[in-house]
Design a protein that fits this description.
It contains 20 helices and 2 strands. It is an all-alpha fold and 407 residues long. Keywords: Cell inner membrane, Cell membrane, Membrane, Sugar transport, Transmembrane, Transmembrane helix, Transport.
Length: 407
Amino acid sequence: MMQSISQAEIQSSGTPVSSWALPTLTFLFFIWGFITCLNDILIPHLKAVFDLTYTQAMLIQFCFFGAYFVVSLPAGALINRLGYQKGIVIGLAIAGFGTLNFIPAASFHSYPWFLAALFVLASGITILQVAANPYVTVLGNPKTASSRLTMTQAFNSLGTTVAPLIGAALILSQLDSTEGADAVQLPYLILTVALFVVALIFSRLNLPVVENATAAEKISIKTLLPFTHLWLGALGIFMYVGAEVAIGSVMVNFIALPEITGLAEADAAHYVAWYWGGAMVGRFVGALLMQRMNAGLLLAIHAAAAMLLLVLVITGQGQLALFALLLVGIANSIMFPTIFSLALHGLGKYTSQGAGLLCLAIVGGALVPLAQGKLADTFGLALSFILPIFCYIYICYFGLRSRKVTG
């Protein structure tokens, strides 16, 4: 029997829970970071296997991040009805079903099947994110809730950093072999087993059932209309996620260009780890800087740095363009949490609805990469980076405009 207890009682008492709970939750953060970043390896691989244009290849991100927009609100309703733990088990099972479908998609050499599998996989990941973030905060002493969430988020960044390395070894290294699409079967089979095993573990853990969970509330457009900075922040989230995902999606192909490094794509993929690793390190440095600097101003500085680096990417070649592109990861590091917090500032009782709106804006990760793929097909890969520059111009504006919000 699982212990039923109110959220208020948990937060006031710091109810002890299974020693497996937090480590298992931490693994969830790692695995969805890993799966999300593995798309950056999947894109160049399937592009080569199916002889796709950049626009067609970017449908991978369109299907993956489109699921966030479609599933976020239903996921919140599911968590409210069934609770965090059951929601996590369902999310893991759905994600596992998605990764399992990579095997027949490869066997039948079907790109549409891959896209459908990605949407199912991302739907499960969306449910996990809606449930796991608030659940971490109530598992244990409330005084250390922020510390627990920071630690688990760090493992998410670790997942995004190691995914390109493993993906390069298991997937891109097979591009020149006879395996083709079949190269994805082993890594995604491993992910399938891991997801179902963790789902089984979570279903057996003795965890407190948080009553009256409020993982997500129905978004009321009329209620949120007066909060101009929230809507501007939602557009900022759209721009940021879109730019970050678009850059990561074309990075392997760009680095492999003869005028940049001329490396094989399997070798070029190793540099993607530096891009995401820079974002991980930058988060820790940025957290320290924000104790001394205005958050809006720091956001504007990072966005301006990203713009200047991408100008070097477009106009430069060789090592200059390569390292300018990798350094964009550091510039990205503080953007998501900073935009998120600035957008929610002063919302009071409408904070959860505002957060739901911001989560919907993650759909930028579906649309901006698709647009950059079209630019790459039309004007070339280097020039396509002009689109993320416009995204960062807006983020810089939002940062400057938000300077007075928090003082």
